[in-house]
Design goal:
The structure is a single chain. By secondary structure, the chain is α/β, with parallel strands linked by helices. The chain has helices at about 90-105, 120-130, 175-185, 215-225, 240-250, 260-270, 280-285, 295-315, 340-350, 355-370; strands at about 5-15, 25-30, 35-40, 55-65, 65-70, 110-115, 140, 145-150, 170, 190-195, 230-235, 255, 275, 385-390, 405-410, 415. The protein folds into two domains: about 5-65 and about 375-415, Urease, subunit C, domain 1 (Roll), CATH 2.30.40.10; about 65-370, Metal-dependent hydrolases (TIM Barrel). The longest helix is centred in the last third of the chain and has 23 residues, at about 295-315.
């Protein structure tokens, strides 16, 4: 991904550096050759070239680009979970995924971590984005997900003679778990996504208290992945599944819905980040009937919503780390609504806007393993910047309105916004 050349000055706004510190009023940001050269009070701005480009923040907010920490570009706003493995061929899913990446960037998300991919599309999306073939967030790529036979993602009965070839790798025992990871090694993924537990959204008899992988299978995944310098995460809702993942050595957990005291202690001891992905649950409750979700499933989402909100509060309040990412790509939770997750965490979960924005920038970059490159506005880092016409701390829902984006900048290059 090419960096900008020359100098750009962004001024007349409040600066949020992503570290969670107090906002800097009447601030300025200087970008030189794609990297941040200065971020602070306007009165301290060093001299710049006379021909430097200038962006007026209009009294709004200058902040790091957002990080979507649980991104499914290959999910195509399906009406039911099972549509993912039967609806479209890989060629069309690839085109849809590229469009979703472009949309995410336009929504202010300059980076993203894949939460699982159909086929091996995300690896090639990452290459295309980094080669400037198509626009999109800086991407940490995942691939096909790993699930135990009969688990959450294995819903086709054997008599149909249909596998899950494009969506998941099904395993039965530690040896098959190791084999599945080795296939992903060859595909070039960075994150191995697994399914230790079930979910209220399951199209079969699974629910969010079901265990879908054994500890031995999970441990085999981690051993093999770490041997190849890959990281492991997992869909963890059930209490025992969360603890199994943490004991097995997972590098992150998704959801952490029904974490107990023992699980929380394990999470904090290893400093493992959690991505709750909770707006999906609220959308499932509010729009479930519209998409013909059964009352059993809707009730399950409501329990997940309440349990997940409480777990997220406890994790952050006790010093843990939360990433912001929302499982977007379903009809009731479509691509483009990413920032609703942030508003939800302020208005429903009860976090402060500054806490949420820190989770959505610095912590997201930490989860991606790239906090030294972006996620905060500090000298030397890549100029991945979002300039918003409005006070985001006063009204975080401003991030839901793309028409208020003055500039979405990636490596100093303005990729979207009013000044593009």
């Amino acid at each position: 991904m090419k960096l900008a050349t020359g100098t750009t000055v962004i001024a007349n706004g409040t600066l949020l550096d992503g570290n969670g510190g107090p906002p800097v009023r009447d601030a300025a940001l200087i970008v030189r050759d794609g990297r941040i050269a200065y971020a602070g009070p306007h009165r301290g701005v060093p001299s710049v070239e006379p021909d430097a480009a200038r962006i007026d923040a209009r009294g709004g907010t200058i902040m790091p680009g957002l990080v979507e920490a649980h991104f499914h570009p290959t999910y195509f706003n399906v009406a039911a979970l099972e549509d993912l493995d039967i609806k479209y061929p890989v060629e069309y899913v690839t085109l849809l995924a590229a469009a979703n990446c472009k949309l995410a960037l336009e929504c202010g998300y300059t980076s993203a971590r894949s939460g699982g991919s159909l086929f091996n599309i995300d690896v090639w999306l990452k290459k295309a984005i980094e080669s400037d073939v198509c626009p999109g967030p800086r991407l940490s790529a995942s691939g096909r997900e790993i699930c135990g036979v009969g688990g959450l993602m294995d819903w086709n009965p054997d008599f149909r003679k249909i596998g899950m070839e494009g969506l998941v790798l099904l395993v039965n025992g530690p040896d098959e778990a190791r084999s599945a990871v080795r296939k992903l090694v060859k595909d070039g993924v960075e994150w191995v996504k697994t399914y230790p537990t079930g979910d209220a959204a399951a199209p079969d008899t699974n629910d969010h208290h079901t265990l879908c992988m054994t500890f031995e299978e999970m441990h085999a995944v981690v051993q093999t992945a770490h041997n190849h310098k890959m990281k492991v995460t997992g869909h963890c809702r059930a209490t025992e599944g969360i603890k199994n993942a943490l004991r097995a050595g997972y590098d992150a957990i998704e959801h952490g819905t029904f974490i107990d005291d023992e699980g929380l202690e394990l999470l904090l001891k290893r400093d493992v980040p959690c991505v709750p992905a909770l707006y999906f649950e609220l959308a499932s409750v509010e729009r479930g009937k519209e998409f013909k979700l059964s009352q059993r499933v809707i009730d399950g989402h409501k329990e997940t919503l309440e349990g997940g909100a409480e777990s997220a509060r406890r994790i952050l309040q006790t010093g843990g780390r939360l990433g912001m990412g929302g499982d977007y790509g379903f009809g009731w939770n479509p691509h483009g609504d990413y920032a609703r997750e942030l508003t939800f965490f302020v208005k429903y979960v009860g976090l402060s806007p500054l806490e949420v924005l820190t989770c959505a920038t610095r912590t997201g970059a930490e989860i991606m393993g790239r906090a030294d490159e972006f996620g905060t506005l500090e000298e030397g880092k890549l100029a991945d910047v979002l300039v918003v016409d409005g006070d985001v701390l006063a009204d975080i829902s401003a991030l839901e309105d793309r028409s208020r984006f003055i500039a979405v900048m990636q490596g100093g290059v303005v990729k979207a916004g009013l000044v593009k």
